[in-house]
């Protein structure tokens, strides 16, 4: 899928001057052509935007839009709704075929705002606002009087809702970030990810990453420090930083090769997976898989977040999204257990049983159903309760050490084939780069089913 495009190929607009729509260069994207549109989009402009998106898909080019205003006029007829339906249909058709992004730089409201949720990357500026119902409508329908129109759909709140992937002060900054993201992606799903010249030695020791992770299982640290030491030149583009913050996702390069990174974040919920982080991880994994971007998973998690709120809100279904995403991914997949990998969270964080290609672990890693303290409390509870108080603590420590030696050691997991290698932390960067290089020719035959049924 490719097309040689002229520097500027305009797309017919519905009304002169209402919205720009072209195939060509866009500031922040170097010399790479994209299909882009910009302006205040009304119902009269939907045909132009739909044509632009369709042309971009046909050309196999990324689609980028800058929305200064978007919505429905109360006086608009059904034709306006139909027009927005065409835009939504074209965006859905573009999904997984070409990368798509929208920069929201003004108020986007009503039904058309839903179309924003169909793109891969949503960037919002401080002037952007995104909401389905106006503050007045929300107050009238809910009976509340404290709906602040200034805060109903601003960038700050959508950075926490998971709607916005990127937050920027101005449009140029947002476009530059989107350009950085797209530089790590192919132009379309039939192309390979672009490699870059290696400016950072692949065999550079990852001593800083090794030093960041504490030896004690309960101590906190920022996994971004580990990522920064493993990737080329410390350059990492993080997405949805404030949403599902116990999981970090983003793009980088290792040995010049683009890679999508999924990592538990121990300084948030101790790295436990919750509903938001499961959704965040699942969407990112599926996105990388759609565009042939290899996946690196860094594991340090005590499990899924416990609690009635999580169970009642359906963590079973949402956690299954992450499992489903990894299970169906066909791109090269490398994982490294840095410290803890317990229970169901170990399974869904790209374990060997999920189809992982290369499963690595540090010597200090603990891989088991649960930690030693919890396991001893369950298995030996009656024995410990029957003991005299002065001997109980000492015996508990002995039992925990026995459990750790028998079940938690990564070497035990390696002997059973659940881990491919236990590596020196200082060689992590080099080992990952070598694994990704060896997996560049990986090909999996796609299923002949009509489509899957992801647990949405």
Task: Describe the global form.
Answer: globular
Helix content: 25-40%
Rounded mean pLDDT score: 88
**CATH domain topology of the largest domain:** 2-enoyl-CoA Hydratase, Chain A, domain 1
Number of discrete domains: 2
CATH H-level homologous superfamily name of the largest domain: 2-enoyl-CoA Hydratase, Chain A, domain 1
Highlighted features:
about 450 residues; 2-enoyl-CoA Hydratase, Chain A, domain 1; eight-stranded mixed β-sheet; seven-stranded mixed β-sheet; globular; single chain; alpha/beta; 17 helices; about 35% helix; disordered N terminus
Provide a descriptive summary of the structure in words:
The chain is of the alpha/beta class and 456 residues long. It folds into two domains: 8-183, Alpha-Beta Complex (2-enoyl-CoA Hydratase, Chain A, domain 1); 207-362 and 423-438, 2-enoyl-CoA Hydratase, Chain A, domain 1 (Alpha-Beta Complex). It is built from 17 helices and 17 strands. Strands 10, 11, 12, 13, 14, 15, 16 and 17 form an eight-stranded mixed beta sheet that branches. A seven-stranded mixed beta sheet has the order 1-2-3-4-5-7-9, sandwiched between helices. α1 (46-59) packs parallel to α2 (78-94), α9 runs parallel beside α11 (315-328) and α13 crosses α15 (389-408). Residues 1-7 and 13-17 have low confidence and may be disordered.
